[in-house]
């Protein structure tokens, strides 16, 4: 079912090596809970901003490789130019593994072998800063670098945080909020531990919204606990999201006129204003 139909390496290379200086903002999507919409949100935002003419790089930093699949890139069992695991191992240069997707944004793909990296990283010196060291030299080639993180607080998730100026937390219900304080303290500790790390909480976005009392209560309690961090935009629950995953196409491309695509465009505008992206 998975088809690799999105690679355009020649274009990627020529654009990546051009000299235009971009904003170079890095943003991780983080939440220890899985299934909250991290990956869906990275792919939606990347395609919206690319459609608006921004140069966007999406980084698949999760061994599940769902972000790569969402862009139609499936490297298992076939020849490929390299994936993020080889960057962690220092076996490839970053320019060699960046590919351009058919929707305009760029991608550093992942494969399941990234799970191996997570096992060896704890013993490696500077292991919390590996992704940051990879991305810092190229960040000014992009307006925005979006990093997809795995659903835990292991080494890869910490690397996503330390590599980022900001992190955005999707929350899909009361349980999605449970581990937020831990995530906030880990991000804070890293800024104290490492001089160059300045990761800040950009906001909390409610996802999978249904019109129930529970969701209304969640909005209220989140706003009280994290004043000024709860974003106005909300992403509704929609079967369009499931279909777009199955067809390996980001929501705003798969169904441009759907209500959930409009939710994502509103979120993109809200974030762009906070980040002064335009
Ligand atoms: N707004 C939504 N409505 C319904 N299903 C969604 C929505 N956003 C994501 N999904 C689905 O929920 C599942 C988990 O989403 P995903 O983005 O992979 O979460 P995470 O990366 O946090 O684990 C996927 O099958 C995805 O298609
Ligand atoms: Mg994911």
Structure description:
The protein is α/β, with parallel strands linked by helices and 278 residues long. It has a single domain, classed as P-loop containing nucleotide triphosphate hydrolases (Rossmann fold), CATH 3.40.50.300. Helices cover 41% and strands 15% of the residues. It has an eight-stranded mixed beta sheet with strand order 3-4-2-5-1-6-7-8, with helices on both faces. The protein is globular and about 50 Å long. The relative contact order is 0.19. Bound molecules: adenosine-5'-diphosphate and magnesium ion (MG). Magnesium ion (MG) binds next to helix 2.
Compact summary:
The protein is 41% helix and 15% strand. The protein has 13 helices and eight strands. An eight-stranded mixed beta sheet has the order 3-4-2-5-1-6-7-8, with helices on both faces.
């Amino acid at each position: 079912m998975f088809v690799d139909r999105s690679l355009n390496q020649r274009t990627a290379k020529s654009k990546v090596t051009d000299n235009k200086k971009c904003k170079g903002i890095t943003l991780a999507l983080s939440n220890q809970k899985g299934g909250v919409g991290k990956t869906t949100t990275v792919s939606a935002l990347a395609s919206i901003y690319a459609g608006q003419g921004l140069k966007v790089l999406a980084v698949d930093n999760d061994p599940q490789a769902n972000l790569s699949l969402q862009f139609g890139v499936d490297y298992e069992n076939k020849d490929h130019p390299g994936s993020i695991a080889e960057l962690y191992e220092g076996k490839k240069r970053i320019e060699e593994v960046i590919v351009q997707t058919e929707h305009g944004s760029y991608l550093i793909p992942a494969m399941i072998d990234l799970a191996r990296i997570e096992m060896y990283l704890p013993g490696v010196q500077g292991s919390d800063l590996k992704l940051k060291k990879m991305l810092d030299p190229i960040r000014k080639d992009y307006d925005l670098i979006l990093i997809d993180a795995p659903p835990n607080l292991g080494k890869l998730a910490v690397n996503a945080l330390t590599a980022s100026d900001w992190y955005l937390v999707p929350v899909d219900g009361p349980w999605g909020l449970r581990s937020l304080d831990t995530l906030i303290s880990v991000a804070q500790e890293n800024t104290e531990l490492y001089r160059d790390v300045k990761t800040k909480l950009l906001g909390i976005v409610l996802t999978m919204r249904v019109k129930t009392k529970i969701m209304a209560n969640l909005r209220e309690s989140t706003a009280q606990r994290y004043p000024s961090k709860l974003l106005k935009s909300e992403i509704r629950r929609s079967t369009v999201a499931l279909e777009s995953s199955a067809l390996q196409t980001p929501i705003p491309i798969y169904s441009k006129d759907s209500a959930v695509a409009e939710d994502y465009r509103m979120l993109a505008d809200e974030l762009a204003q906070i980040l002064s992206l335009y």
